[in-house]
C-alpha cells in the first residue's frame, strides 16, 4: 500500500495548498491512503469543523490533530460526528473523540491510524505515550487484523520521537513526527521494518517562523515582550510530509521518502 502523510496544515496558506494541490499530489504519488495533520489549519491554532471538512473533501482520508486539538471550540462537538478526525490518544481521559481508528483504502485494505502526544517540552503533562501506543498496537497487529498501521507522534523532542520509532519498530508501518513544523532529513526504514521520520514538516509558508508571520516572533525574541498576536504567514505553502510503501502481507515498510510539493521548500529541494 502507498500511504501519504502530510504534516501540520498551517492557516489559510496551508488550507489553500491542500485544496488546490492535494488531489494532483496524490495522483502523482499514486497514494492509496492519505493522512493530513490539521491541528493548525484554522488561524494557526486548532481546526474548525468547516476546515476539517475542507481537508477531507480535498482528499484526506483521515485528519489528525495534536496539542491544539480543541483550540477551536466547535471541534469539541464536531469530532463526535466525524470519525475521520482523530485527537491524540493521551490528550485527556475525558476528552471527546478518539485517538485511534481502523480505516479502509479503496481496495478494502485496513489501515490503523493513531496519534499520541509526547511529554518532553510540551505545555501540559500528558500521560505516558509509550504505554498508550503499546495497547493500540497490540490490539491491531499489522499483517493480521490490519494491513498497515500509522502513528503520528506529535512531540517537540526528536529524542522522544526516535525512541517511539524504535518502540514501535516491527509493529507499525510508519511512525512519523509532527508538531515542530520543520521537516527532518532522517527518513529511514528501521531494522524491523517500520518507516520513520522525526518530523513531517508543515503544510505552510516556510518564509515564516514555523508558519507564523515573521514580525511578531522576531520582536518577541529581540525585545522579550509580546506586542501583537501571532498570525499565520500568507505566502505560498509547501505541502510537506512522507510517502511510505508497505507490504500488505506483513504491514512493514519497503520504502519511505520525504515529500515536498510547491512553495519555498520545493524550490530549494527540486528533487523532492
Ligand atoms: Fe502544529
Ligand atoms: Fe502541536
Describe the structure.
The protein is α/β, with parallel strands linked by helices and 272 residues long. The protein is 26% helix and 23% strand. It is built from seven helices and twelve strands. The protein has helices spanning 11-29, 49-57, 75-81, 129-139, 158-168, 215-223, 263-268; strands spanning 2-6, 33-37, 62-64, 85-86, 100-104, 110-117, 148-154, 174-178, 188-189, 195-197, 239-246, 253-261. The strands form two sheets. It has a six-stranded mixed sheet. Strands 5-6-7-8-10-9 form a six-stranded mixed sheet, covered by helices on one side. The mean pLDDT is 96. The structure holds fe (ii) ion (2 copies).
Task: Provide a short characterization of the protein structure.
With 272 residues, the chain is α/β, with parallel strands linked by helices.
Amino acid at each position: 500500500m502507498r500511504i501519504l502523510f502530510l504534516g501540520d496544515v498551517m492557516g489559510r496558506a496551508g488550507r489553500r495548498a491542500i485544496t488546490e494541490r492535494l488531489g494532483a499530489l496524490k495522483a502523482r504519488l499514486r497514494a492509496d491512503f492519505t493522512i493530513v495533520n490539521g491541528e493548525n489549519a484554522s488561524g494557526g491554532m486548532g481546526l474548525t469543523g468547516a476546515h476539517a471538512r475542507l481537508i477531507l473533501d480535498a482528499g484526506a482520508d483521515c485528519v489528525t490533530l495534536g496539542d491544539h486539538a480543541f483550540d477551536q471550540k466547535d471541534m469539541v462537538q464536531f469530532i463526535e460526528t466525524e470519525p475521520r478526525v482523530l485527537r491524540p490518544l493521551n490528550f485527556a481521559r475525558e476528552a471527546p473523540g478518539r485517538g485511534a481508528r481502523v480505516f479502509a483504502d479503496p481496495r478494502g485494505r485496513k489501515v490503523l491510524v493513531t496519534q499520541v502526544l509526547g511529554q518532553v517540552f510540551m505545555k501540559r503533562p500528558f500521560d505516558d505515550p509509550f504505554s498508550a501506543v503499546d495497547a493500540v498496537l497490540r490490539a491491531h497487529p499489522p499483517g493480521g487484523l490490519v494491513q498497515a498501521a500509522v502513528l503520528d507522534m506529535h512531540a517537540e523532542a526528536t529524542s522522544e520521537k526516535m525512541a517511539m520509532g524504535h518502540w514501535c519498530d516491527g509493529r507499525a508501518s510508519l511512525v512519523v513526527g509532527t508538531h515542530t513544523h520543520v521537516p527532518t532529513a532522517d527518513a529511514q526504514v528501521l531494522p524491523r521494518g517500520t518507516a520513520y521520520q522525526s518530523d513531517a514538516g508543515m503544510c505552510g509558508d516556510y518564509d515564516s517562523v514555523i508558519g507564523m508571520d515573521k514580525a511578531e516572533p522576531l520582536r518577541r525574541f529581540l525585545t522579550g515582550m509580546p506586542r501583537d498576536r501571532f498570525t499565520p504567514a500568507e505566502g505560498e505553502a509547501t505541502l510537506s510530509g512522507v510517502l511510505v510503501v508497505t507490504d500488505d502481507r506483513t504491514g512493514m515498510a519497503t520504502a519511505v521518502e520525504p515529500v515536498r510539493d510547491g512553495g519555498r521548500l520545493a524550490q530549494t529541494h527540486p528533487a523532492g
